[in-house]
């Protein structure tokens, strides 16, 4: 179904250095993408332009230079570090006499290689089909005429029209199946919300070390490697935090500059975990010289998926690659943790991250020990209905001792409904170790 190549092919890379900052791509990142796809780089050709050439994207002279390199080196594919139009791909393939891939197709291929779950495969297939739908004409120029002859009369469709219809039907089918997946994820989020279990979501630029950190925090065995998009399928695990209790930690797909829109749309159900989280852990490769730019790219994607208003805790990873930098917590003027410096691979500073998470989540959580007289049975019932009671005992005077934990908004609403009565029964502002 997909126009994909197998690993081990020989490729010539093409990179254009545009004068406009918004159009620029990173050449080193292209090399990492190509390596992640399992392709061997034979040569890298670069050029400067103020705007793309309408026919070849690069200039005519540079296109001839690339064609000559392809012939001399025996390259099987030419990979552009930019998004090409279908017409530009077609023109370049005629000139180069080999396959031409753009940045979007390369990323989609890497995603197809890494998808493991049923949902992940569906999401990648949907993105690939949408991208492929604008490029069908390349493969069917010899079948453009309508069908005819005995047994073939009637439909009045060209082969291209038939393929487009089949593609459209497949896209609709996948979208319906992904809608069911989205509903299942929504049910899971509602169940966690009813139990008042906070959700933390790891976000960050690809290869920032999110999966390694996830494994360090949860003792999980998620695949982690020094390559782009090592993680594709989201993983959820439960973590215990002091003074907060159980929380759900989600490891998500890494972001990248100019992430293809088809991918963002296809992974909508997965990215909902990020949008609905209580706190985002924005993991940054502190040793990367492009760390600041990568952070801006992640923030741009968060805005695109409408998750830019979720509270964020910065996590600067890989400090073991920096000189004279020790694990630490950076705090705002009010003392609230805003950043943690650590090394997930060396397991340095993980305890500081646990401390910062407890502080950030505890500020939104009411934790206390209450002593209720028998006459307050209604209030006790309300606390149980909110799933706020972690432990209950009866003291020598026959009064209830309740260790409670709930969101601050629920506690404030309970006080308002009972005209401040719950506040009078607080014995301790901390709920001891039982929570």
What would your notes on this structure say?
- This protein has 435 residues and is of the alpha/beta class.
- The chain folds into 3 domains: 10-101, Rossmann fold, CATH 3.40.50.11060; 197-362, Rossmann fold (3-Layer(aba) Sandwich), CATH 3.40.50.300; 365-425, Alpha-Beta Plaits (2-Layer Sandwich), CATH 3.30.70.
- Helix content is 38%, strand content 21%.
- It is built from 13 helices and 15 strands.
- The protein has helices at 27-36, 60-73, 86-96, 103-114, 118-132, 159-194, 210-218, 261-266, 268-275, 291-304, 350-362, 377-385, 408-417; strands at residues 10-18, 40-49, 77-80, 99-101, 199-204, 235-241, 245-251, 279-285, 312-317, 328-331, 337-341, 365-372, 389-394, 400-407, 426-428.
- The strands form 3 sheets. It has a 7-stranded mixed sheet, with helices on both faces.
- Helix 1 (27-36) links the parallel strand 1 and strand 2.
- Helix 1 (27-36) packs parallel to helix 4 and helix 5 runs antiparallel to helix 6 (159-194).
> Could you please say which CATH topology of the largest domain applies here?
Rossmann fold
On the 0 to 100 scale, the average pLDDT is 80
Overall number of strands: 15
Radius of gyration: 28 Å
* Overall outline: elongated
Q: Which range does the strand content fall in? A: 15-25%
Please name the CATH architecture of the largest domain. 3-Layer(aba) Sandwich
Element pattern in H and E: EHEHEHEHHHEHEEHHEHEEEHEHEEHE
Helical coverage, percent range: 25-40%
| Number of contiguous helices | 13
Largest sheet: 7 strands, mixed
The H-level CATH homologous superfamily of the largest domain, spelled out, is P-loop containing nucleotide triphosphate hydrolases
Kindly report how far apart the N and C termini lie: 53 Å
User: Total domains, how many?
Assistant: 3
**How are the strands of the biggest sheet laid out side by side?**
6-7-5-8-9-11-10
Protein name: GTPase HflX
Domain Hflx-type G: 198-365
Main location: cytoplasm
Subunit structure: Monomer. Associates with the 50S ribosomal subunit.
